[in-house]
């Protein structure tokens, strides 16, 4: 995607009358204004700025630890760094450099093999099916592992979640095998409706948990690792060694606190509305929604057209009719079929199913000569 196309899309989506997937893009000036005038982050803004992780950063850590029902948490600039620290900690404790995870997990797909190149850890895949491994798959895994990393939800499989009984059975099998359990919970916040249990109940299954500050919550950046006191103390040591002990991080911390205030209470409603939006999209000829119904407020939409054609048609629809529907389109292994990820957040709650069908019909009309 060229810079010119990205700039066109930024301008069109920013000024569109209606937006379906995700949140409206902001200019730098608008982002600064939102940080200053947004929801009350629950922190005294007359306090001094943070210095190397104290102040507002520490307040965020304590707030997230309490929400997850865990003793402590440490703020990291990125989830990539946070998860490397967590997994190397458990490797040192178990004596095994092997981590069981899914081949579609974030460290395998989106981190340039950082886990192996920087930490010397290795991965084994108990299953390649688009779901979490079953207890039998863990027990019959071809290689011994010391840690199991479970991504909840598994984003690249379609933001899919197990049932609560499946999750507890998988965790139980890991324990039976003597393994530690780490939750890649970048999007854990929106997983409670499908699992039917609270954040503390979910996190109690694991030895450590990672959550994102910007996915779902809409913060500027950052992540947190949570666990017991010994785990978090050493995580902070490795954060410093990895270069994550940043002088000041108050904008990221404040935006995350604001996201906890603003977005967290709305997530169950987003998940409910995502099912209505997905059901409407599934009626479009040739469309496929995955999973159906969605497990969270995010899901995949597949259409039988080329990615470039869909991207250009979507941009024209936003520019000419003020309707901004979807973000990035990715081509599939099947020629002529493409996928986009749909995020049902605040803007999408203003759409009915019938309005979605009408807008997508207008999008597809722009594909025709």
From TrEMBL:
InterPro entries: ArAA_b-elim_lyase/Thr_aldolase, PyrdxlP-dep_Trfase, PyrdxlP-dep_Trfase_major, PyrdxlP-dep_Trfase_small. The keyword Nuclease does not apply. Its cofactor is pyridoxal 5'-phosphate. It comes from the Bacteria. Pfam families: Beta_elim_lyase. Signal peptide: none annotated. Keywords: Pyridoxal phosphate. Residues 51-296 form the Aromatic amino acid beta-eliminating lyase/threonine aldolase domain. The keyword Ribosomal protein does not apply. Belongs to the threonine aldolase family. PANTHER family: L-THREONINE ALDOLASE, L-THREONINE ALDOLASE-RELATED. This is Threonine aldolase family protein.
């Amino acid at each position: 995607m060229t810079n010119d196309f990205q700039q066109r899309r930024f301008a069109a989506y920013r000024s569109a009358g209606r937006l379906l997937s995700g949140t409206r893009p902001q200019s730098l000036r608008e982002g600064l204004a939102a940080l200053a005038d947004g929801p009350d982050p629950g922190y005294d803004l007359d306090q001094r700025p943070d210095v190397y992780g104290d102040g507002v950063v520490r307040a965020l850590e304590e707030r997230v630890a309490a929400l997850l029902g865990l003793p402590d948490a440490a703020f990291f600039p990125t989830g990539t760094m946070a998860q490397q620290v967590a997994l190397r900690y458990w490797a040192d404790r178990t004596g095994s450099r092997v981590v069981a995870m899914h081949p579609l997990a974030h460290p395998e797909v989106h981190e340039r093999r950082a886990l192996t190149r920087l930490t010397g850890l290795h991965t084994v895949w108990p299953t390649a099916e688009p779901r979490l491994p079953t207890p039998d798959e863990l027990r019959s895994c071809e290689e011994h592992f010391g840690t199991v990393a479970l991504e909840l939800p598994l984003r690249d499989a379609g933001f899919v979640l197990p049932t609560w009984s499946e999750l507890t059975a998988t965790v139980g099998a890991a324990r039976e095998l003597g393994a530690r359990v780490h939750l890649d919970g970048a999007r854990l916040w929106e997983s409670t409706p499908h699992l039917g249990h609270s954040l503390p109940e979910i996190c109690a299954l694991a030895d450590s948990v990672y959550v994102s500050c910007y996915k779902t919550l809409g913060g500027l950046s950052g992540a947190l690792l949570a666990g017991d006191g010994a785990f978090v103390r050493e995580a902070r040591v490795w954060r410093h060694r990895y270069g994550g002990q940043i002088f000041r991080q108050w904008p990221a911390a404040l935006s995350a606190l604001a996201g906890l205030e603003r977005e967290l209470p709305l997530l169950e409603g987003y998940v409910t509305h995502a099912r209505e939006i997905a059901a409407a999209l599934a009626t479009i000829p040739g469309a496929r929604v995955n999973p159906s119904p969605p497990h969270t407020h995010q899901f995949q939409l597949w259409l039988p057209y080329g990615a470039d054609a869909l991207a250009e048609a979507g941009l024209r629809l936003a520019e000419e009719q003020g309707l901004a529907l979807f973000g990035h389109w990715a081509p599939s292994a099947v020629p002529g079929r493409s996928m986009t990820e749909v995020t049902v957040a605040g803007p999408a709650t203003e759409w009915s199913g019938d309005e979605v069908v009408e807008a997508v019909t207008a999008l597809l009309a722009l594909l025709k000569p």
